[in-house]
Amino acid sequence: RPRSHTVTTTSSSFTANLSASSSTLAYDREFLRTVPGLLMVTEIVLGLLVWTLIAGTEYFLYPAFGWVMFVAVFYWVLTVFFLIIYMTMTYTRIPQVPWTMVGLCFNGSAFVLYLIAAIVDASSVTKDLDNHNYNSWAASSFFAFVVTSCYAGNTYFSLISWRSRTLQ
Q1: Threshold 0.90, pTM exceeds
Q2: What are phi and psi of 93, to 5 degrees?
Q3: Alpha-carbon gap, residue 111 to 154, rounded angstroms
Q4: Cα separation of 149 and 34, whole Å?
């Protein structure tokens, strides 16, 4: 006797939304005109300065500068990643991710770890260590504190955004 095969297919709203919205990439130029956008670009530029100033020296001989390099490179890469997410408005395509909480955790952790790294950097800079690296290490220390203040500002704006989302 012949068998009857019935196949039922379903699609989730996630895959339907993802396939419908992935046809074109959006570009948000206005993000760079906001204070968080400007702070993010400043974090990228000055964070790049922090780790290139240290990378151009014999930092690997001193463990403290290795920590500063780790924090600077790690958060530089993640900040570039988040800038791309915000510029392409990818966050609107993945609504399941709590982006305000992610931004708050990212900026808060960047602020705390960059503050520690800046203090370690500043306390490790002495002319006794290596005279020809002194200027690079001193400059990296200064820029690390400036980047720390930028992350503090973005943490503040992320907190405001998170609070306004949780009150709704």
Answers
A1: no
A2: -85, -15
A3: 9
A4: 17
Q: Is the pLDDT of residue 152 over 90?
A: yes
Neighbour count for residue 104 (Cβ, 10 Å): 21
Our CA dihedral for 82, 86, 90, 92, rounded to 10 degrees, sits at 130
Check whether 118 has a pLDDT greater than 90: yes
Between CA 88 and CA 26 the distance in angstroms is 5
Model confidence over 51-109: pLDDT tens digits?
Answer: 999 998 888 888 899 999 999 999 999 999 999 999 998 888 888 999 999 999 999 99
Residue spans of the domains in the chain: they are 26-94, 96-125
Give burial (CB, 10 Å; 0-12/13-18/19+) of 25. Answer: exposed
* Torsion angle of the four alpha carbons 125, 127, 128, 129, in this order, in degrees rounded to the nearest 10: 50
Given phi > 0 = left and psi -120 to 50 = alpha, else beta, which region is 89? Answer: left
104 and 92 Cβ atoms separated by less than 8 Å: no
Structure tokens at 110: 């960047």
Tokens of 90: 């990818």
